[in-house]
Amino acid sequence: xxxxxxxxxxxxxxxxxxxxxxxxxxxxxxxxxxxxxxxxxxxxxxxxxxxxxxxxxxxxxxxxxxxxxxxxxxxxxxxxxxxxxxxxxxxxxxxxxxxxxxxxxxxxxxxxxxxxxxxxxxxxxxxxxxxxxxxxxxxxxxxxxxxxxxxxxxxxxxxxxxxxxxxxxxxxxxxxxxxxxxxxxxxxxxxxxxxxxxxxxxxxxxxxxxxxxxxxxxxxxxxxxxxxxxxxxxxxxxxxxxxxxxxxxxxxxxxxxxxxxxxxxxxxxxxxxxxxxxxxxxxxxxxxxxxxxxxxxxxxxxxxxxxxxxxxxxxxxxxxxxxxxxxxxxxxxxxxxxxxxxxxxxxxxxxxxxxxxxxxxxxxxxxxxxxxxxxxxxxxxxxxxxxxxxxxxxxxxxxxxxxxxxxxxxxxxxxxxxxxxxxxxxxxxxxxxxxxxxxxxxxxxxxxxxxxxxxxxxxxxxxxxxxxxxxxxxxxxxxxxxxxxxxxxxxxxxxxxxxxxxxxxxxxxxxxxxxxxxxxxxxxxxxxxxxxxxxxxxxxxxxxxxxxxxxxxxxxxxxxxxxxxxxxxxxxxxxxxxxxxxxxxxxxxxxxxxxxxxxxxxxxxxxxxxxxxxxxxxxxxxxxxxxxxxxxxxxxxxxxxxxxxxxxxxxxxxxxxxxxxx
Length: 662
Ligand code: ADP
Ligand code: ZN
Fold this sequence. Notes:
- This protein is of the alpha/beta class.
- 48% of the residues lie in helices and 12% in strands.
- The strands form 3 sheets. It has a 7-stranded mixed β-sheet with strand order 1-7-9-10-11-8-12. A 5-stranded mixed β-sheet has the order 2-5-4-3-6. A 4-stranded antiparallel β-sheet has the order 15-13-14-16.
- A hairpin with a 6-residue loop joins β13 and β14.
- α18 packs antiparallel against α19.
- The radius of gyration is 40 Å and the shape is elongated.
- Bound molecules: adenosine-5'-diphosphate and zinc ion.
């Protein structure tokens, strides 16, 4: 997202810790070591008897008695060698002997005697056991070292993550929310959100709450605290939340659910607390939490998985905060997710995120609108047809469309054009669906022929099946990992019938069938097709209850995230497998049948493909004649009614055939 909000960082008036005092600590250590090294470099412990002997020998220069009865005797320079058996240079300037004495009186008596005898001429002094400083130092130094190290790591970690590197050791528990102040010059409004009429209507209510809360509270109503925007990525949930803030002209805090989660215990919860504290200061305002499933997953469902205490405590804090502030405080929380089914039920309870607003992938007309928004800043030539672009981008999200427009502009610029044209857009769409063209991939003539026959197989079959998706084009130009592809225009439907699914399956199997019928050898090139077909068949039989043997049974559980246990018996599992095999075999036979029937046309198509590498629906029409079935997508263009979302249609825009790496 590149909206030019003036993004103010939330205030963080804690000082940034510098490395300075780490250096100070290091300097202290070095200093201490140096000083102590000067002071008593050489020392030696002796027994009291030895000590007495040494004093009697006249070695002592001065004696220090400590209150714990330990004694240090400094040695006369000329006797150092006698005591330490080493050269004076090796033991430092003032070496001493340490000894544990019995009592102060005994020592005094002994020294008095020695003084009288003339053996001891030095001084006696008393000291408290002095080296406390050093002791304390050595005790706390490791702690300092650890703290320093920790700070260092934190800075490293925080530096990358926080906005502008502001995160640091003191703000680990601070929320990392981005704040968009109200009244920003470039604010986003509903005008910037194309399509999504239903969602806009629902959030309009929230805008009203924020604008005139008294209108609702006077009647005793409670303003909702939160709404959940549910939908696939890139459909404009963030955009919509920002538009709500823009329309109501209130500040907007934006944060991602994963920002709460850190490796440090308690950080998430304290970030939640901080976020709400900041928000309350700015009320009325909006808090937007993207990807709330990062914190909001159902708690402790799988005890065996060990759970995630940190995430749970973050979630608990979030729940507490949501309950804690009064419903009329003017803070409204919007959260986005694409997996509402895995969210903790407590989050969805009344008084929390009790409103769910669906933000779906745009349909044909909505795509036209989204194109409208994103084509505005581009310089276009008159070949660009928004209708066609919208039709060529089934299943694209708003973000994908924004991407197409940008990519098209880049392609046009690369070719040095003055304006962006239709071909640039088509190239951009191809690129986004299929990846980069790999013109350099080397193929032998045999391989090329095999791929052409395979792709022509898909094309032929889809041409002759009523419910198969209408073909747009077929290519054998390698792109991404695909060696060739047939591109279809999937019909956008909310529910899919069994006939439609079977026809699609048959068309998908057409590639492999063509290999078998016309080459006599099958290859790994069809692996991708087979995977899709197998998955689809399992889905039809185990989930959609579409087989004759196991009719009307659905073994899918929408509430069980992992499905560790199969909800059916071994015997049923076997029957499912059997049914899947039967269904695929049936469609495969049907595909081969169709191919034999239209063998001449198919081969013509393959030849054309080898020659031109890309062929379009018009070329296919020239070979086979007009398709006997009118596609429904033309009809959809006219009518624009959208029923409530049911089973999402999972048809893809293309059927690439991946080169097997095996
Ligand atoms: P989400 O939060 O749902 O993942 P975003 O709101 O971040 O999606 O959308 C990403 C980008 O896609 C937006 O910045 C915008 O450019 C574009 N976009 C998505 N949906 C729409 C829409 N309905 N109208 C206009 N632009 C859209
Ligand atoms: Zn294929």
